[in-house]
């Protein structure tokens, strides 16, 4: 817990916002992350199913998939840049302002993909425009989940932060389910119609989610913690510089605690879809419904893990999830190669429950509690987004490259997944417990741990 140097929490921050404000923050975090994940899932699924044909037709099938995932990785490369840009304002101007801006940027970029010309129509300009849209999509997403987690954790009352902040990732599960559901419907069309116009409807459908999310976020209140900073006129002028000067230890912990979880998350959510189709000749129509069911299970699990972290602590729950993630990659591929639809389904669902959503659900309250109040938004955002590039963004590309380099063997992929999870497990054991920590203090949890 915090050291004796921490000042007492003012009543509004200590006890959370009024119930209506908490509900509004929960809905804002839920639906905003739903849009972000919806955008990423429909793009990732399109990378596995149609983009290699539409935008990279002159490549071999394997090279086309790698090129599609390379364009996918560009969005993750943009995330820390977006995080750096928006973090300057999240700790200075407020959480709400940033969340509205990131929402609009993500929604517009996704809809633009649905209007792009294909390689057959404009040649090399088509993949260039695709990469540009993907970059802007990732730039907007760079402060989305972290911003929602920070606002909701600062708004929720003690004893309920884990379960309420986990709703941000429950929103991601809803977005995954919605994206998989839309693709499942589109794949009912003849394949030639999917390639001509069906895939465009998938991306244009994000308009509805964007409008609903914007209406909710415009009515959002700032968190009590940030309001307290504003009243005292102590919000930092340069939060990014301050995090690198004073908050390096929690920042590094967040990066390393996220790397393995992110790598496995996007391996299960993105790479596995392509692997099942290209390496195992699974019917493409089988994949989107499976992703939908797995996402629903993941959404339920993330709230369950959030509640558990409120009861027994963030550290033991997060460490247990990562420990399981070290062990499951090898058995997962063995189960996939049985060819049994039941074994394949259980494997993907377990990957979604642990790596895809369970780990992230605990992160949503754990990471904001690691930082002091002056640069919390910047710390959570930069830590998660730098890890997103090295973990989640590169994972599908690395996995596809390993499959190509080792003659289709899944063993190197399983080793990579376990090694990344092991690194995050070690980092989680070095992190302090933060459950119910005072969020109004400027002292980081790692410094308070040293001071005890």
Q: Could you explain how this protein is built, in words?
A:
With 452 residues, the chain is mainly alpha-helical. The protein has helices at residues 11-15, 19-49, 51-54, 61-90, 95-113, 119-122, 125-141, 144-155, 161-186, 191-204, 206-218, 224-232, 239-246, 248-278, 287-312, 314-327, 329-336, 341-370, 376-393, 395-405, 411-430, 445-451. Helix 16 runs antiparallel to helix 21 and helix 18 (341-370) runs antiparallel to helix 19. The radius of gyration is 21 Å and the shape is globular. The chain starts with 10 loop residues before the first helix and ends with a helix. The model is unreliable at 1-15 (pLDDT under 50).
Task: Sum this structure up briefly.
The chain is built from 22 helices and no strands.
**Strand segment tally:** 0
Q: Measure the end-to-end span.
A: 8 Å
- How many strands, which pairing sense, and closed or not: the largest β-sheet? none
Oligomerization category of the chains in this entry: single chain
Helicity range: over 70%
Individual helix count: 22
Overall shape: it is globular
Structural class, judged by helices and strands?
mainly alpha
> Which H/E pattern describes the elements?
HHHHHHHHHHHHHHHHHHHHHH
Summed over residues and divided by their number, the pLDDT gives a mean of 82
Low-confidence stretches: 1-15
Beta-strand proportion: under 5%
Radius of gyration: 21 Å
């Amino acid at each position: 817990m915090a050291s004796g140097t921490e000042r007492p929490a003012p009543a509004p921050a200590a006890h959370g916002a009024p119930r209506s404000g908490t509900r509004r923050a929960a809905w804002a975090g839920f639906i905003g992350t739903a849009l972000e994940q919806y955008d990423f899932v429909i793009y990732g699924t399109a990378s596995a199913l149609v983009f290699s044909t539409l935008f990279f037709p002159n490549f071999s099938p394997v090279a086309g998939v790698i090129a599609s995932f390379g364009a996918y990785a560009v969005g993750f490369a943009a995330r820390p840049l977006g995080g750096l840009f928006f973090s300057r304002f999240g700790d200075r101007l407020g959480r709400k302002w940033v969340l509205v801006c990131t929402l609009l940027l993500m929604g517009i970029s996704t809809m633009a993909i649905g209007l792009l010309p294909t390689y057959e129509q404009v040649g090399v300009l088509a993949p260039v425009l695709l990469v540009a849209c993907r970059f802007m999509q990732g730039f907007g997403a760079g402060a989305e989940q972290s911003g929602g987690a920070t606002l909701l954790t600062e708004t929720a009352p003690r004893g309920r932060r884990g379960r309420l902040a986990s709703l941000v990732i429950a929103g991601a599960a809803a977005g995954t389910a919605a994206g998989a559901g839309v693709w499942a419907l589109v794949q009912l069309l003849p394949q030639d119609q999917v390639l001509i116009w069906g895939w465009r409807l998938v991306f244009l459908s994000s308009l509805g989610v964007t409008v609903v999310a914007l209406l909710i976020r415009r009515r959002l209140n700032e968190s009590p913690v940030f309001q307290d900073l504003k009243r005292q006129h102590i919000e930092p002028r340069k939060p990014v510089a301050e995090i690198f000067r004073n908050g390096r230890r929690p920042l590094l912990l967040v990066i390393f605690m996220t790397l393995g979880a992110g790598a496995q998350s996007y391996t299960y959510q993105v790479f596995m879809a392509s692997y099942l189709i290209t390496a195992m000749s699974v019917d493409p129509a089988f994949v989107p419904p499976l992703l939908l069911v797995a996402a629903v299970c993941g959404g339920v699990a993330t709230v369950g893990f959030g509640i558990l972290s409120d009861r027994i602590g963030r550290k033991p729950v997060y460490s247990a999830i990562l420990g399981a993630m070290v062990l499951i990659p090898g058995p997962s591929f063995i189960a996939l190669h049985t060819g049994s639809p039941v074994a394949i389904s259980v494997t993907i669902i377990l990957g979604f429950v642990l790596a895809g959503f369970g780990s992230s659900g605990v992160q949503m309250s754990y990471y904001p509690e690691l930082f002091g109040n002056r640069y919390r938004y910047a710390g959570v955002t930069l830590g998660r987004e730098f890890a997103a590039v090295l973990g989640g963004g590169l994972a599908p590309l690395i996995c596809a490259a390993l499959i190509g380099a080792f003659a289709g063997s899944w063993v190197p992929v399983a080793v990579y997944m376990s090694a990344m999870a092991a690194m995050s497990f070690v980092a989680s054991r070095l992190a302090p417990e933060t459950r119910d920590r005072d969020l109004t203090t400027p002292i980081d949890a790692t410094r308070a741990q040293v001071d005890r």
